[in-house]
Amino acid sequence: QIQRALRSLCIPLDRLHIMKGHMMQDMCKGLSRQTHAQAKVRMLPTYICSTPNGTEKGNFLVVELCQSQVRTLLVTLYGDGNMSPQMVYKIFDMPEGIRQGEGEALFDFIAHCVSRFLSDTTTPNTQSSEECLPLGFVFPFTCRQTQLDKAELLSWSKGFSCSGVVGKDVVQMLQSAINKQEVGSNGTDGRWLSPWRGWKSSQSAPGQLSHVEVVALMNDTVGTMMTCCTEGKPCEIAMVADKGSNCCFMAEAYLVETAEETSGRMCVNTEWGSFGDDGTLNDIFTPYDESVDEESCNPGEKRFEKLVGTLYLGEIVRHALIALTAEKAVFTGTDIAVLKEKGVLTIQHILDIINNEDGTTDVKRVLEVLGLQPSERDCGRVQQICRAVVGRAATLHAVGLAAILSYMCQTRDMETLMVNVGVDGELYKGYKRFGEILQSVSRLLSPECMATLLPSKDGSGRGAAMVTAVALRLAALRRAVDEVLGPLRLTRPDLEKVQALMRQEMERGLGKHTNATASVRMLPTYVSHTPDGSERGDFLALDLGGTNFRVLVVRVTGEGISMASEIYVIPSAIMQGTGEALFDHIVDCIMDFQTKQNLMTHTLPLGFTFSFPCQQVGLDKALLLTWTKGFTASGCVGQDVVQLLREAAQRKQHSGLKVVALLNDTVGTMMSCGYDDPKCEIGLIVGTGTNACYMEEMRNVGTVEGDEGRMCINMEWGAFGDNGCLDHIFTHFDRVVDESTINPGKQRFEKLISGMYLGEIVRQILLVMTERQLLFQGRASAKLQTKNIFQTKFLSTIEVSNGLALRQIRSIVNELELEASFEDCVLLREVCQTVSLRAAQLCAAGLAAVVEKIRENRSLNQLSISVGVDGTLYKLHPCFSQNLQMTLKELAPNCDVSFHLSEDGSGKGAALVAAVASR
Ligand code: ADP
Ligand code: MG
């Protein structure tokens, strides 16, 4: 029988694995918004989003509500890695009956303890009387927390049942009680208050608490975690193995769906004592566990806690002994009536029995004191049972720990996890083998994780001071960060203003007389129709001015468009040589291509995508206004580009070249998307630079004769703001970036939006934040000081949706030779998000002006239109397109705008412009 009993208390390894899996599932359930309400493992958010980093300093007050005491503690931190905090504490016994009395009385008593403590405590006179004294409140009951300083009590436990507290914000209740103390101190009631000394010697009012502010509320488990944090060794899990059992850990904040916080990490209070309340643990319960549960005040609840909490271990042993006595396996022939009484076997008895390594003399003594008459054999067997029960409790703690370890490892996207675990509680301290079992079993169950146990030295009090200190440090950091990033955050009115200004500049660009001074040039393109699908034929196309120079042959049929292309290099000697050499080279490439494609004998119409600003005077006549993107070929500016190409063909005696159209890449993009969607009447580029085109009514185009029909307008919106109209939104960072470019003062709108500049803006912000000690511990690497070292594609990597791509961020940070903490990574991401969000919003404001103008042109209440888009930033950034579309919806609610990615817009578009022209 003994062997059977021992076996039933011993859980096989495969079963432990299954339990760990269940625990992980339940944790996910508790964190998910949908399933949170039914979850047994509650996974309560604590709003504690960081662990101490050692820079915390100042005085912090803690008040801890315990079973029958109130503990007050004053901790002074010196910003020295929290190595030597100074602590003063005092313990107050709670008056009888207060636990079942009125809530108000309980909080008044707590406030009174605070007041007494402060008046008895002399502290460093560095404390100025105006400074607020922050207070952390340790309140070990189940609360629904919605902020660090806002927590609604869900239910009392541990013998507390004060009236009028459940459902109320306990932080508020404590703060009111504290404020009341102050009033009392000024009035006649001085009974509880001693004269004020020390801290505020300049003030004579006794027991003044007006400077005490409750800034954080936490559970004891969380306090333990914080206590165990020492410099360079963050502690991210804490376990309290005591009367009850609980555990908390730092989870990725975005996974804590019940809290709004999404960046960084947040400490989650698992409340794992209720694990198994849905039946998950039924197959490991022994008849003894069932008896304990039935006799408890909350049968069916807290099933895990009842297997592992010290409140229950004695009871489990007691029921086992009763059963085994009935089976005549122990205490044969003696009276065990004493065992019938609930609670006679305490955890202390059990620990005394099992900690006696050699022999059974202590066992005998303990049992005899209880009034039993054990034989030698009974002593051995009782000891075995006790060891099995307590060993099982340690093993089950290890299962829970393993679940948390694996969960953390998985959600942090790591192959291995090293983590420190703070441990406290009667069982941990009293049972010698607890730590050893915890470590070895969790290692078996989660071999990918390595947990280091840190015993908590000062209980939860010091930790509570840390939480409070961290909260204040974070609040200060937040204020400083907001100050830096504030100017980059655009409000709805800001964006509306940009939209209105864009609209104004568009009108000026279109006006015959205002065009010359408008910052948005609004260049006519002589493209007057978008494709209607009836286009047919074979075309040649050239694409110059994007990332590559290409020659293409494009076949447009009833079935769709097919093409072949070749990329040609333009050596920089040619880019920066003479115009003749450049265009000779282009014709050579065309001839090479035609030879390869067997097209030498065909004369195909040619469309030329030429992505530089041109003053177009006809579809096949365009004067180059200026070179950009590294081109400087001489003798071209002011010339007709098509003519330059034709002359080169003549020089090369290539007679089969028929250039019918020259177009900008925005137009090509619009046309290629227009082939599939007739509603596509806008083209947008967000790549190295940014630009847009759209179909305008001829009657509005003052710079071209004629009022009939429409014409595509190449806005050249990158230059928006070059006349100073956007000066109010430029930040310090934008000015620095602009000044370091080859064209300061030019393309000001583009410099807020496009790929060539976003990385550089981020870099400037990082430099300022580092200088202000907000990042990288104030140390910027030499690399970070290098221009253009921070590439725009880094923004895409860093901002990747859902969670923190920590590994990728780390590799970028390493590449830049920076030392980044986890919090640095979170802040780095916030900087990137701010910059890319602003870019997308500004782009949306520009587009809003365009779609609203089109809607008004056509006198529609509602416009339905499509935009063809190209550009790597738009295509590859994880949030740019979404932010752009969302903002556009807000700014132009009467326009229903859809976006199509253009595929090879320059090539296809050139052919289609040629085709539409021939049609
Ligand atoms: P172009 O505008 O010259 O035709 P692209 O459309 O390819 O060229 O855009 C190039 C720009 O895209 C570069 O400025 C680069 O910084 C940016 N870029 C490249 N990769 C990414 C990425 N993954 N995420 C965001 N931007 C990127
Ligand atoms: Mg391009």
Automatic annotation (TrEMBL):
<feature type="domain" description="Hexokinase C-terminal">
    <location>
        <begin position="237"/>
        <end position="470"/>
    </location>
</feature>
<dbReference type="InterPro" id="IPR001312">
    <property type="entry name" value="Hexokinase"/>
</dbReference>
<comment type="function">
    <text>Catalyzes the phosphorylation of various hexoses to hexose 6-phosphate.</text>
</comment>
<protein>
    <recommendedName>
        <fullName>hexokinase</fullName>
        <ecNumber>2.7.1.1</ecNumber>
    </recommendedName>
</protein>
<keyword id="KW-0418">Kinase</keyword>
<feature type="domain" description="Hexokinase C-terminal">
    <location>
        <begin position="681"/>
        <end position="916"/>
    </location>
</feature>
<dbReference type="GO" id="GO:0006006">
    <property type="term" value="P:glucose metabolic process"/>
</dbReference>
<dbReference type="GO" id="GO:0004340">
    <property type="term" value="F:glucokinase activity"/>
</dbReference>
<keyword id="KW-0808">Transferase</keyword>
<feature type="domain" description="Hexokinase N-terminal">
    <location>
        <begin position="481"/>
        <end position="675"/>
    </location>
</feature>
<feature type="domain" description="Hexokinase N-terminal">
    <location>
        <begin position="2"/>
        <end position="229"/>
    </location>
</feature>
<comment type="similarity">
    <text>Belongs to the hexokinase family.</text>
</comment>
<dbReference type="GO" id="GO:0005829">
    <property type="term" value="C:cytosol"/>
</dbReference>
<dbReference type="Pfam" id="PF00349">
    <property type="entry name" value="Hexokinase_1"/>
</dbReference>
<dbReference type="InterPro" id="IPR022673">
    <property type="entry name" value="Hexokinase_C"/>
</dbReference>
<dbReference type="GO" id="GO:0005739">
    <property type="term" value="C:mitochondrion"/>
</dbReference>
<dbReference type="GO" id="GO:0005524">
    <property type="term" value="F:ATP binding"/>
</dbReference>
<dbReference type="InterPro" id="IPR043129">
    <property type="entry name" value="ATPase_NBD"/>
</dbReference>
<keyword id="KW-0067">ATP-binding</keyword>
<dbReference type="GO" id="GO:0019158">
    <property type="term" value="F:mannokinase activity"/>
</dbReference>
<dbReference type="Pfam" id="PF03727">
    <property type="entry name" value="Hexokinase_2"/>
</dbReference>
<keyword id="KW-0547">Nucleotide-binding</keyword>
<dbReference type="GO" id="GO:0006096">
    <property type="term" value="P:glycolytic process"/>
</dbReference>
<dbReference type="InterPro" id="IPR022672">
    <property type="entry name" value="Hexokinase_N"/>
</dbReference>
<keyword id="KW-0324">Glycolysis</keyword>
<dbReference type="GO" id="GO:0001678">
    <property type="term" value="P:intracellular glucose homeostasis"/>
</dbReference>
<dbReference type="InterPro" id="IPR019807">
    <property type="entry name" value="Hexokinase_BS"/>
</dbReference>
<comment type="pathway">
    <text>Carbohydrate degradation; glycolysis; D-glyceraldehyde 3-phosphate and glycerone phosphate from D-glucose: step 1/4.</text>
</comment>
<dbReference type="GO" id="GO:0005536">
    <property type="term" value="F:D-glucose binding"/>
</dbReference>
<comment type="pathway">
    <text>Carbohydrate metabolism; hexose metabolism.</text>
</comment>
<dbReference type="GO" id="GO:0008865">
    <property type="term" value="F:fructokinase activity"/>
</dbReference>
